[in-house]
Specification:
57% helix; single chain; alpha+beta; 11 helices; 449 residues; rod-shaped; 12 strands; five-stranded mixed sheet; 16% strand
Length: 449
Amino acid sequence: MTPSKTSRLLNVLREFLRFLKPRTLYVRSLLILILPLIFVQLVSTWVFFNNHWETVASTLTRGIVGELALVLDAFSSDPSGFDPLQVAYTEHLGIQLTFFPDQIINIDAVGERQIGFFASWLARDLESLRRPFLVDTESFETQVVVQIQLVEGVIQAVIPRQRIFSNTTWAFVFWVIGSALLLFAVTSLFLRSQIRPIVRLADGAQRLGRGETLENDLKYEGAVEIRRAAQAFNAMRANLYKQIRERTDMLSGVSHDLRTPLTRMRLQLSMMGENDDIKDIMGDVLEMEAMIEAYLTFARTEKVEAVTKVNLTQLLQSITEKWQRNDYQLNAHIENTPTLLIRENSFRRAIDNLISNAHRHATTTWITAGKRRNHILIIVDDDGNGIPEAMRDKVFRPFFRVEGSRNKHTGGSGLGLTIARDVIRAHGGAIFLGDSPYGGLRVTISLPA
């Protein structure tokens, strides 16, 4: 086999083993505890079967073979004394002896000298009699039949099974299996109680990452390390909410304070008549008011909004119809999408920002939405000038505006993409920029389904 084929085979084997490897902590922990137990039980069973069971079985079968040897010796010495011997064996040993004169054991028709899985134990010791024989352990549930060929015929012995096979063997097997199942059940319950706080912590972190509001702290339960992780999570959650609240309040307060003097300036300018200087100043005032309104919009996205179940298809269709009513060239292809837990107003504002951003720099916009595997994709394309690849990371910064076609003269305060990204991230999704097949910018939103 060539090295390349060997390498490919190893890669396939590695991928197969990786596929078989359990993914959850519960299953992995269970295997760590159960696999050594299974190994110990198998070793114990192997030792038992190779020592205890073999010793007991050999002792029992040697006793039976010895008794049959006495029957053969007595029959060879005096065939007429077989009847009293038959009665004695039946009464005292439980062995039913029968003599079939002039009969021959048809071993070839049977194919083997022993019938049944356990017959080999008895057949091994019957070899010492140096006579043809047949052992049958399957025809009867409680008895074993042994036929021995003599010159005069066949002696058949029907022996109780308990005289050959020890019942303690099955008791040991049942004990091994029962103890393993009992330990598996106890271990499973214990692991579930220990892993439950970890799962709850992971769910809380995932919900917090999606932007959901966690009303209550996580319970402190489980091992000491898990309790410490829950305490750290609760402290992080409290600090995060505090920082968001303080930043939102500060931004809202500053924006509101700035609106009052700007309103007075606009009123005073409107009363001063019209000339070129006043028009320039009025334009600057209006631009500042627009920027402040954008700041307030940005602050509103930081406020905690209740999460509700929303039909995403209907939401996107309503946004599309609103823009189409304003005679904007917006083409939509929206497939059926599942109902999601989202902040409806924030999500609507994010999609509106993307369409508005495309509207300012393009003549036509295309919006496509649908479910792909375990994600929902929302794609907004336009036929504008696009954004240079080197600046696609910078445009998500607050108040950043691209030079050229996307400057302040075309409108916007540099917060549209920032707001959209924050909203999408708060819902556990991601947003990407790329080249549109229509020549402009493509914005791709990926949400967990």
